Amino acid sequence: MAMGLFRVCLVVVTAIINHPLLFPRENATVPENEEEIIRKMQAHQEKLQLEQLRLEEEVARLAAEKEALEQVAEEGRQQNETRVAWDLWSTLCMILFLMIEVWRQDHQEGPSPECLGGEEDELPGLGGAPLQGLTLPNKATLGHFYERCIRGATADAARTREFLEGFVDDLLEALRSLCNRDTDMEVEDFIGVDSMYENWQVDRPLLCHLFVPFTPPEPYRFHPELWCSGRSVPLDRQGYGQIKVVRADGDTLSCICGKTKLGEDMLCLLHGRNSMAPPCGDMENLLCATDSLYLDTMQVMKWFQTALTRAWKGIAHKYEFDLAFGQLDSPGSLKIKFRSGKFMPFNLIPVIQCDDSDLYFVSHLPREPSEGTPASSTDWLLSFAVYERHFLRTTLKALPEGACHLSCLQIASFLLSKQSRLTGPSGLSSYHLKTALLHLLLLRQAADWKAGQLDARLHELLCFLEKSLLEKKLHHFFIGNRKVPEAMGLPEAVLRAEPLNLFRPFVLQRSLYRKTLDSFYEMLKNAPALISEYSLHVPSDQPTPKS
């Protein structure tokens, strides 16, 4: 038992001795370099603080950039909203402007009410005083001027026409005798047009315009294509057309082979290879443009001048005067030179009839206002000169005896001619005066054109012209005019066409418009003095025809 107690005590003593709190060992877990570790921990803590500061600065920068981007996006959105609103407002203004312009054109087609003395509902007019308050000579002065200065020109015109018609008949007959009917163009009888054949020519020297229709040799024919026949043409080409040369015995226009390329190994069973188009040499003889089936105005001019020169050489020995070409840009501008030194100009104009109507295609009209050269030498101007002559003759039958409509046109044409010599030519021509008169003849009753109303009708004509100038709009009398009597027999395509504005060049050329407007008012201002002067002194520079 004692031995057991001893063992227990020994175990207890051994446990107490080995307790770490009483006797710590040298290799315990307490770090040996505690200060070094603390220093490293502090350095690491400082590094973490610096990194935290850097991250905070980066977050702040990103936030600032995000805010700036949001601000830019907001400004862009506001600008887009403003732009969309402005574009919408501009579009609405443009639509409103177009609606007002269309309404104005639809409701302002006639002369001013001051000119018509009534009929305001049908013919609304201008604001302000007509003709800028300028006054024209009274009825007595106008009547005296007409009798002394203009009526004599009508008798001179009749003698001039008679002389020229006989000479031109002889000249064209000589031309036909030199032509080969199998290969050359066939020239037909002339047609008298314009002021000399409408009895209102007043300008000196008297000038005749004669249309000379021609046709191609067999088996060819001319196929006209109007600008209003469905093809798209620019605005400045309205009133023009093209003339295609086709075979009369096999018109390629009615077969698909004339509209498509069949290829080298395909053959049209109707026309074959040689009937599709004339050979190149034949097309030149037919006065077509190079590599084209369309008639060329320049080729026609050269052919006509050459033919007239040859014809004159054959008959020159019969006459005691010389014949020479006048204007180089007109194919038939001719001038008879008498030995006395006097001369007599006239125009022979080669034309092509449009189907079976009285419309004619011309390469050049000296009396027409110049609107620039045609875009192509295959463009031909469509002339209504024959229809204009027929309309005036038909209207005359319904007017009172001694009607003053032509007297108005003669006086206005006289004033315009004298003003052009004083200040130079403008954009206004005698053709515009005649167009205005034709419109008034439809608007006015027949009884309004009595001889005693010459002063009122002349004032009305000038008011109509002033209104048209201020609006820059004077519609062609026949194109698109449904008021023209059906008895005139105009082609339906012409009646259905959009109205043609003869004053369109004024919209595009401001300097020309300003010059024309100034010249018009200057003409009105000078009218009383000119009429008084020429009433006392009547010039006599008209040559006496001799053969």
Automatic annotation (TrEMBL):
Family: Belongs to the ITPRIP family.
Coiled-coil intervals, chain numbering: 38-79
Pfam families: Mab-21_C (PF20266)
Main localization category: membrane
Nucleus listed as a keyword: yes
Signal peptide range: 1-15
Function of the molecule: Enhances Ca(2+)-mediated inhibition of inositol 1,4,5-triphosphate receptor (ITPR) Ca(2+) release.
Protein name, as recorded: Inositol 1,4,5-trisphosphate receptor-interacting protein
Subcellular location: Cell membrane; Nucleus outer membrane
Entries under Gene3D superfamilies matching the protein: 1.10.1410.40
Membrane topology term: Single-pass type I membrane protein
A GO term from the CC aspect: plasma membrane
InterPro entries: ITPRIP-like (IPR026250), Mab-21_HhH/H2TH-like (IPR046906), MAB21L/cGLR (IPR024810)
PANTHER family given in the database record: CELL FATE DETERMINING PROTEIN MAB21-RELATED (PTHR10656), INOSITOL 1,4,5-TRISPHOSPHATE RECEPTOR-INTERACTING PROTEIN (PTHR10656:SF8)
